[in-house]
Specification:
2 domains, three-stranded antiparallel sheet, putative membrane protein from Corynebacterium diphtheriae fold
Length: 222
């Protein structure tokens, strides 16, 4: 796994890093879901009907899962840990809008480093991109943030992988340039040549498009 080390500017990160806002929203939604599910569980038990107990079990499991998400989310909020643990990946601006830009990133969604990587294209809408020009094709070095939406591992691939720009963690342009240079030209060119696929990725069921390993460049393929 390719990692990139740099001194994270916490003040800058808290001001511009949109991952924090995403995590806060996720936690609020999880807490609300846990309260609703727990209330429904209590009401169904109060009804004291055989069928109500079956539904109560289902709602109770939902409450436990939502509570787990609410408690687990803050652990992901350590920005230094996210940058230190995340793999350095390429992302390019695929679309520009008055409200922000869309990034197209190349990520490995495989869980195990012992197996061959499983490359996919993912997109991320961002409002702000300090240190970069907001134009199609702009190279945005990022780190992959990998998460699961369930308490237990499901399958051999991460359920959710997104790109977090290095520029959200530092104001230093030299750091961004160093990260950009650490990514091979082959990867940058692969993304640039496939900018038109961003819309297809957006419409994909899992919001990602798996790439055929046999059609990848030799440096990335099987």
């Amino acid at each position: 796994m390719r990692r990139f080390e740099f001194a994270v500017d916490r003040g800058h990160a808290h001001a511009v890093n949109e991952v924090f806002a995403d995590l806060r929203r996720l936690r609020i939604m999880a807490v609300a879901a846990a309260i609703i599910a727990a209330t429904a569980t209590a009401y169904l038990i109060w009804l004291n009907h055989p069928w109500a107990y079956l539904l109560a079990v289902a709602f109770a499991l939902g409450a436990v899962t939502a509570l787990w998400v609410a408690l687990w989310t803050p652990r992901r909020a350590g920005i230094e840990k996210l940058y230190a643990d995340g793999e350095l990946v390429p992302a390019v601006v695929s679309e520009t809008h008055p409200s922000g830009v869309v990034l197209l990133a190349l990520v490995d969604v495989s869980r195990s480093e012992a197996t061959a990587p499983v490359y996919a294209l993912v997109i991320r809408k961002v409002r702000d991109l300090p240190g970069h020009e907001k134009r199609a094709g702009e190279r945005v070095p990022s780190v992959a943030v990998r998460t699961d939406r369930a308490p237990r591992q499901v399958g051999e691939r991460w359920q959710s992988v997104s790109a977090m720009p290095i520029a959200w963690g530092t104001r230093d342009g030299e750091v961004i340039e160093r990260a950009r240079a650490a990514i091979s030209e082959v990867e940058w060119r692969l993304l640039t040549d496939n900018l038109a696929l961003a819309d297809k990725v957006r419409r994909a069921p899992a919001k990602r498009l798996l790439l055929d390993p046999h059609q990848l460049p030799d440096d990335l393929g099987a």
